Amino acid sequence: MSPPTEELAPAMRAHTTLSLLRAAEHSLAPAALVQVMAAMEQGTAEEVRARIENARSLSWNPMSFHMAFADQLRLAHGPGDKNVQLWQHTAEHIFGEGFLAKAVEVSKRLLGPTPLASLKIMRRMYAHTTRGLGIIDFGELREGLATVDFYGFPASEFDFECYVEGVGGCLLGSATMFSSTANLEILNWTPSGEAKYRLTW
After folding, report:
1. Cys staple from 9: which of 4, 65, 86, 160, with CB 3.0 to 4.6 Å?
2. Cα(157)–Cα(1) distance, rounded to whole angstroms?
């Protein structure tokens, strides 16, 4: 089977990669962040930063590039809760500024200042900001509780454990924008590219 064309290959919106960089700037010393970007083996640290910062928000970064950045940041921060926290702050940038902030604001007007305002549109936002990277769905979604099913990720190509933590952090970050008591549980994940989460607030 021939490899997917560039237009169909897994990819992440440039705005997400930039939001990850902005979150990392608050958690890592400048020298440590330079080391992270150099370790990606995608060019010099200066070239990597320029590529992230100069890309148009709605353009696509190849998943190989985005994931190399995420993987190296996970090594720098640590796995598990530390990586989830990095992505929680990333989500605050993703949903708090740029084109997605408008969608959250419209939902907030309809539903009020509750995590439901962001979670109700999460499935659609994820589909808009990723390509070929799986689907987010909700088993239950009501005030105070969300159970989340994630499936279809190309786990044979990318580090799924890192990505599971990233999705969890984004779910948590979308909730903590409205509720400081939000709590996330990663219930399980499988090497085939599926994961389950429970979010309460």
Report:
1. 4
2. 15
